[in-house]
Structures are given as C-alpha cells and as structure tokens.
From TrEMBL, chains A, B, C, D:
Pyruvate binds at residues 54, 214. It comes from the Bacteria. This is Dihydrodipicolinate synthase family protein. The active site is at residues 142, 170. One of its GO terms (molecular function) is N-acetylneuraminate lyase activity. CDD domains: DHDPS-like. One of its GO terms (biological process) is N-acetylneuraminate catabolic process. GO terms for cellular component: cytosol. It comes from Arenibacter certesii. The keyword Hydrolase does not apply. Belongs to the DapA family. Keywords: Lyase, Schiff base.
Length: 311, 311, 311, 311
C-alpha cells in the first residue's frame, strides 16, 4: 500500500516526540541532538517527530527551529522518517517552516490548529486547507485541545482527509471516544494514519486499530515502547501486561513530580539528562526543577531503570 | 473471591444504566419498567443500574425515584444485582435514598460528587467518607466531570478505596489516561471494581483490565454489549471487530442526532420507544425530538436493526 | 410604577443572600435565624433572599428548606420582601418549593438553571417558561454559571422577560459586559429588575443603571452596603470611595482565606459566628476552617470592625 | 507625577487597539495605516496600541509586524504614545520585537502571557520578570484569559508591579471583580496604570478609578470613546448615559453578527472598510463575512452613523 501522494509508505509504530536539547544560553545543544537521535534509532523507533509540544517548539526562536530541522534531517540521513512540527499562529510562518523542512529532507509536517484566536470549525477547516494547499510535503493534523483550546472535530477531520496532502492525525486529547470515532470512520482507509499522543493509551488504541503512538517516554526508553507496540500488533497479552505496567510506572513517577502543569516536560527532560542524553535546560516559560526535586526524580529514575533491566 | 463486605461477589460485565420509563404526565410508566427489565435480563446483562444520568435521576422527584427503586428490586427479584444512583447535592437526601434502596433489596448504591458547590478534593474526600459511613450498602463512586464539574482525582479514589463500603468506581470521563491510571493502581485489588461509562471505550478498557461497562445502548441491544464484553474477555478479536463496529454505528447514528447537548439521551429513549420498550417522554429539562427528527431517527434505527439481525 | 403582576413595587436596593444558621447536628438554628433577620432589618436592607448559594440551599434537605421558609416569612412578617431560592434539578421539586413559599407569604422566588443535565438555550427557555407557568409567585432568574455550568444568554433572558411572572434577574457571573448588555436592553423596562451578585461590582452597576445588589457581606454589615447603595443612587463619590474601599477590604480579608474554592462561604459564616449571629456550622460538602484559620480570620475581622467603627 | 522610569507621564484615556490594514495578498496596506492613524489622532485618542488581539498580531508574520511598528511610529511622529504588542510564545521573539519597537520610537510594549504551554503562576511570574529584564522599554501586562487560557492572578500582578519596567496592566477578562481588586490594591499607586479592554465596561471602570480603555470601537468612532471617557472623568451622568448607549448599540449591532467566535473582529474591520479606513482583508485564521452578511452589516452601520450624527 502506498500513500495518496509521493508513493510513500504510511507511517506505523512508535514515533517519539523528540525533546529539544538546549545549552544553558538557549542555543541548540548539537552534541546531544546527535546522541539522542542515535539512541532513538538504535532503540528501533519507526520515525522521529521534532518540534512538537514535547520538543518545546513554542518556546524556540525560528532560528533554532531551523537549525534543529537541518541537524535532525542530516543526522537521520533517511534511516527513518522525520516529521516536523510547524504549528504556529501565523499561516505564513507555518508555510516557511514547511518549505524549510522539505528542503532539509523531512518526511512530513505536523500542524496543530492556530492557537491564539478563537475560531469556529469552518475557519479551522479553511485554515488547514489553505496550509495544505501552500506546501508540498504531506501533513499530519495534530489535535491538542489542552494547549490550543480548540478541538479538531470529527467532521472537520473527515472533510480535511480528502485533501491529498493531509495524510493522518495525531490525537493528544486523551479522549477515548473521539479516538474510537476516528478509528471507526477511517477503518477502511489504511492510508489515513491515526497516531495517539498519551503513551498511557497507546496499547489500547493499537489493539483497537490505531496505527501507533507518539510516546514521550520513548525519548528515554525507545525499546520499551517499540516492544510494547509490537506486542500489541501480535496481541501478545502477557507481554503487553508486563510492558504496559512499566509505561504506567514511568507515567506515575516521572511525569507528575511536584504537581505542576509542566511536570511532564520537566520530568522527561530532566530524566534524559540523568541518562546523559541532554542537559536539563528548558525554553521559557518552562524552568528547571529545584535541586530537591531533581534528587527525588533521580531516585525514582534509578528504581525504574533497575526494574527495566531485570525485565 | 469475595468483596470486603457482605461476602458478595464483585461486579463484572455489562450493567446498563436503565432509562426511566415515564408517562406523559411525568408519572412512572410501570408497564414499561417491567418490559424493559425483562428485556435486559433476557439479554444477559450482569446487573442493572437505575437512577444514573441516563436514568434522568436529576429530573425526577424523590417520590418517583423511590417508586422506581421499589419496582425495580421487586421485578428483578434477585436475579441480577440492582445498583441505585443516589447522587444528590444534599448528603441527607442521598442517605435517605441509600436507606430506602437497602430496604428495597438493592445490591449497591452509586454516587457522583455533589454537583452544585465548588469544592476541593479534600472536601470531596470528606463528603464521600461521611456518606459511606452513614449507609449500610456497598457504594460505587461515579466520576462524571462533564455533569458535576468536578473530577474525582486518582489520589482521592485511592484514599477512598480503603473505606470498607466503597467497592468500586464507574468512570464516565472518557479520559483514557485517567482510566489506565486507575487500572494500574488497582491491578492487584480485584475486589475494587472499575467500570467504564462511554460504551465506545468499553472493549479497550476490558482488554486492558477494566471490569465492564455501564453501556447506555444496552437498554436497546443488551445482547450485543454482553457478547462484546465476552469477546473482550476471550480476546476474540474477530468477534470484537465486528461487534465493536456495531456499537460505533449506534453511537454515530443514534446518539448525535441534531447536535444537541442532550442528543444522547433523546436518541436513546426515543429509539427504545420504537422498540416498544418505553414511551418517548422525558423529565424536564430534557424534551422530545421534533417529528422530523423522530422520523429520521426511526430510519436510522431500522437500518441498524437490519444490520444487527444479519450479523 | 407597579409590576406587571400583583401590583407589587419592583425591588430595589440591597437584598442580602441570607446564610442559613445551622446547629451542629445539621438542624435549623432558629434562634440565630431570628437574630440574623432582626440584624438585617435594623441594618436597613431592602429585602432578604433565602436559600441562595450563600444560603447553602443545595446542601439542605427539603425538610429544612421548608422550615427556613416558614420561619423567615413569620419573623419578617411583611416588613420587607422575602425572596426564596427554589433552584433545583427537578422541575417538580422546584414547583413544590414555590407553592410552599407562596403559602408562607414570600414576595417572590428565585431560580437558577437546572444544574446537572447539559442542555442548550432552547431547553433552558422551555424549562423556565414551564416553571413560571406552574407557579403563582413572581420569579427572578438567577444567572450563576460558575455553579450551574450554564449561562442564561441575553437572548434567552429577553425571550423569558415577556412572561408575566418573570420579573427580573440576579446575575452572579461577574461578567461586566453581560450585565451592561442586560442594562442596555432593559433600560426602558423599569419593571424588569436587574440585581448583581458579586458585591465588589455592586456600586458600578448601580451607577450604570442596575437596581441593586445581592451582597453576601451584608449579612455581617448590612448598613455598610445599604449606605453604599444609597451613595451610588445619590452619586456621592466621596462616600462611594470610602465605603467601596471597605467592601473591597472585606472581600480581600474575609472571602479568600486559605485559597479554597469554598473560602467565601466559610469566611462569611465563620465571621458571622464571631458577631454572634450564627454558629460556624455548614451543610456538607462545606466544612469548617481549621482552628488556626479561625484565629487568623478572627484577627482580620477585628481589624475590619475597628476600621468600620472609626469611619 | 512621573513614571518610575524614563520620566514619562503615565498613560490615561482612550488607547484604541488599532486594527492592522492588509492588502488582499496579505501585505501591509500602508495607505490605510496612514489614513487610520490620522483618523484616530484627529479623534483625540490618548495613545495607539498596535499588534494587539484586535490588530491580529498572531496571524501576522514577523516581517509585517516590524513594518507596522516602523510605519506607525513614523506616522505618529511623537504626537501621541505608541504601544506595541510583543505577545509571543517565544521569549526570544518577544525580546526582538521589543528591541525593534524601542529603536522605532515606541512609548511602551504590551505582553500577554505565553499562550501555548500550560504553566503555573510562578512560571508566569518568572517569565514576565525575565522579559522585563531583557528589554529597555516600559511594559504593560496584558490579561487576556479567553485567548491565552491563563489568568494573570492578582498576586502575580502585585509581585510583578515592583519591577521598574512593568508600568501597568490592560485587562480584557471582562471580570469586574478582578478589575476592582486591581483598582483597590493599586489605589495609591497612580503610576501603575490600569486600562480595561471591553469597551462596554470602560465607563464604569473609569468611574471607579480605572485609568482608561483600550476600546476597539474607537477605530471607527474615536471621538465617541474619548468624549465618553471625559464624561466619566467629569462624572457628567447625562452625557455618560447618552454616549454609553451608543457604545452598547455598536456592541450589539457590529460585534455579534453571525454569532461567530470571530464576529467582533470581522465586524469591526468590515465596518472600518465601509468608512474607507481599510480594506476588509484579514490574516488567517480569520476570514471575511459572506456578501449577505456584509450587506446586513452595512445597513446596521448606516443606522448607527445616522444616530451618531444626530447626537
């Protein structure tokens, strides 16, 4: 089976939303970019998604976004597909990022709704159509209502799916009924790719016909999520039970420390710094954990790593 | 395995949230209550839940609620467990309903958070504890944030689960991460029952360790949901695929007509009236569909019934 | 000018939402009811509103609600209008409370939207019309979206205002544009009464044409709010400045202690207990402050009382 | 009285959030920029705020934003203060816009919270502090929770107000209690400027101590809002009544056509095109009204213009 455009194979599997390694001064930490990408590829991931929410796209200047696009495409060098987040509030800036991504060799772009103006579904439809018309790469829709204030309703997805460059959707709503409605509508359209955001629901959506997950935790433990995805494909419930429990332990221990709205992002990137895969520097308005919190997180990470190596 | 209280077996399976059959003047339609209950039991359901949201509890006077409790317990006569919704904004009224339910012979009661005052989790915890202390029946928590404005957070559930009379939770949030977090925490506590509300996500939650579903559509097609539940238990994916598609067709065609906030309730009860199982009368503030809408719904119902009998 | 029904004069001024004095066992504290009512009347208030949100209506059993209605009407004995909250989720229960209030001698009833089911404006319109058709007392609409999840939109108010028994609206949304839109639409309809909930915006709305305020703080300091209302009517800006500053001090020091969602209610009733006007007992799900918080509140209250007596 | 920095006089009065005139191809319509600015200045406004929500900042590329900053500062040429919106999701991009504005000769910059990431108040505080530390112009905070999902809480404003470059706040929440709380806290701090967004509440806030309004309608009718502001300062209630009624008519007839979330923006800019002050072109995701809607709006505008010239 090939996609409606470009004869590319539709995406399946685990596509980590890569964190963006930064130096203390806010510049791109290129060494860590390289290390992290090799870590992901050697972990068996099926693609890499840069400049998503986990990639802190919104806090980065355009200059750094472009550097990351180029670097990632160069380092990956075609080994796996690279997806680039081009979400913005300005259509023109999104188009420029898409064009840049194309030249750099990206596989596809990903766009959430414009997230400042309050608009209706018809405007959202027009906007996405206009964006898809203005670029050459295939595009994924990105549903992220907790951050954009705006749900891409099922009918809007259906209407947009007839655009030849709109090839799928990543849903981070965590709303299982919404995702099942998508799966049901597109069940005979294997070319329209449905990926889920929250890793805690990756297995169940794959069991029910979803195509994979954009799992943040795969930055740290790519193999775990790849194995879990494959277990879901194989319907190996013994394996699922054991690996999914790990995923839930990561969720509980790494993503909720301190009870901040930004606990997930802080927890994930700080944990990666323990693994030597980046520094724990963030783009404002995200800021580092306190020393005490870092120590607590380190303890939790050691425990999880230990359990992981036993299993 | 027995429950921590009363030596009763923990609930598993399909427990329809029974609609409340009403006459045009708002009185209880007892004939339909009987017909409907027999329809459900002969469809193989594992329990009946009355006076939930689907049962329009909030619109009913206390007099009618009590009539329904007595009638249901009498008609069911111990064949399957009867769960009674006692959700209220007044602790005292909830307790009275619980006492009444106990005398009538109910299996357990079900309570969502008090839904007028804006409160914090600590107050919610204290409230549920006080309620459980004041009654003798086992009690399910009922998470329904779209209607109560208040999520029962995981930590609050965990704290409440140590109360001997709090034996489980029904989650209607549709939030898959929340439900997976519950399943993960309680994975070694088989006595703490986790049921899911939205029928569109029943299968996937049972596959992942959930204990069953409170499926509105089971009012019309009890056998479908029971078969689907059993397919999930058996991990019979061919069967799951075919039956789940039916559930999704019901969701799409019956629950969303007209795009009202009350489309689900109107659609479900009106469809039941086509099947001769009740009249399409509602408790205010829910009102009947227009004639045109009823005709459209009838067409959709015929189509679904036809497909159902083929399969 | 007389109202469209009953030849009664339309309400103007300060109508405190009376707290409900309770004994420790949850029964009505009748002594305090008497003391509090005399305190309010001697403070010059223009009416009393019982069983509102501040009156904790939702937490009270129907038995206690009726006791309070009778007691209040008896004690007030026609000296000022008594308004009774009949907000409920069941139309039938609301009607019964309205009938009871009429017999007890109330001036009018007050109803917020039914607050469990999610409904659209058309259903809300039908519901309020049906309620007004089923009772004999005049009725105020009560807009309280933070508690009911449902705004009574301007168009709905306009449509409902043609019902002869719907004589006004109390708005607790704190949304100034909404209130100004109401004032503008009804500026030539002096019989349609527009009262505002949050006392912090009472003056400005009276200056702009609003008819008064349902000020919680008037339970403690009725004269302050009455004087402020009269200053607004007189456009005495020196007086306004000084009295409004007091109201804001009360808001800051009494209503926000501890940062709970229920801080307003806890703070108000506890302060009234310092003044010997009730006990600090609440209806679940509201619970008392801790001892430390009570001490802190007492200090703040003393300071405010001292300032008050100086001015 | 002078401001804590730069010896500038604190802002007072009407500061229209200028719409951004665009050509059909999305480029800046410089002719209209000139016409519009002269229209505003000759209408007596006390300042101009560009690149706010009404200025569609979020939909514009950085290139166009910079062109507008330069053009506006050049055209205004010091006659009145120019405020520049630098709201962004990236601190670095905000800083660059601030630096650009300073060189262009702006009076101050205005920043709403970063609006993609979900953060807590402490992160918001740190972010704004960091921003103010990194620029040289004075800065206004901009509270716009309907668009940013994030309220700048009173305590956060208070903490930020001690930064020498943070000189005021524009509040577009429409929440009267919030605004009164600000006014009360800062009542002895005349250097900290409090402006209100929604023009429907401009008068009442000025009567209560607010310093002015950022009134969108002043793009069309600057004199009306300036006169209303002065009437409020003079406490001329006859004048207030008549002019405020006009403002409410504009709100009702111009800002709500079609019931879209974008009705305000579409209505305002299209009306300005009737007045020959710009073309009715928008930055995506805002799109033009249909021909029928434009005709209806034209009728309404004629009526309002006629009434205006009578008065």
């Amino acid at each position: 089976m090939t996609l409606k455009i470009n004869n590319i194979t539709p995406l399946r599997g685990i596509v980590p939303p890569m964190i963006t390694p930064l130096n203390l001064d806010g510049s791109l930490d290129l060494d860590s970019v390289k290390k992290l990408i090799e870590h992901l590829i050697s972990g068996g991931v099926h693609g890499i998604f840069i400049l998503g929410t986990t990639g802190e796209f919104s806090g980065l200047s355009y200059k750094i976004r472009k550097e990351l696009i180029s670097a990632t495409c160069d380092i990956v060098a075609g080994r796996i597909p690279v997806l680039v987040g081009i979400t913005d509030v300005s259509l023109e800036e999104s188009i420029q990022l898409a064009n840049y991504s194309e030249k750099a060799g990206a596989y596809a772009v990903v766009s959430a709704p414009p997230f400042y103006m309050n608009i209706d579904q018809q405007e959202l439809y027009t906007y996405f159509n206009q964006l898809a018309d203005s670029i050459s790469l295939p595009m994924f829709l990105y549903n992220m209502p907790s951050h954009t204030k705006l749900n891409i309703e099922l009918d809007t997805v259906i209407r947009l799916s007839s655009h030849e460059r709109i090839i799928g959707l990543k849903d981070s709503s965590a709303h299982a009924v919404y995702f099942q409605s998508l799966c049901h509508f597109f069940k005979d359209r294997e070319d329209f790719v449905l990926m889920v955001g929250p890793e805690e629901m990756m297995v169940e959506t794959v069991l029910m016909g979803g195509h994979g997950g954009v799992c943040g935790g795969a930055n740290v433990f790519p193999r775990l999520y790849v194995d879990l995805y494959e277990a879901a494909i194989e319907k190996d419930f013994e394996m699922i039970k054991s690996l999914h429990a790990m995923v839930m332990e990561i969720s509980k221990n790494i993503y909720q420390l301190g009870g901040y709205k930004s606990s997930y992002l802080r927890g994930l990137k700080t944990t990666l710094s323990f693994a030597g895969l980046c520094q724990a520097n963030f783009a404002p308005p995200i800021y580092p954990f306190s020393t005490v919190e870092v120590e607590e997180l380190k303890k939790r990470y050691s425990q999880i790593s230990a359990e992981m190596s036993i299993n």
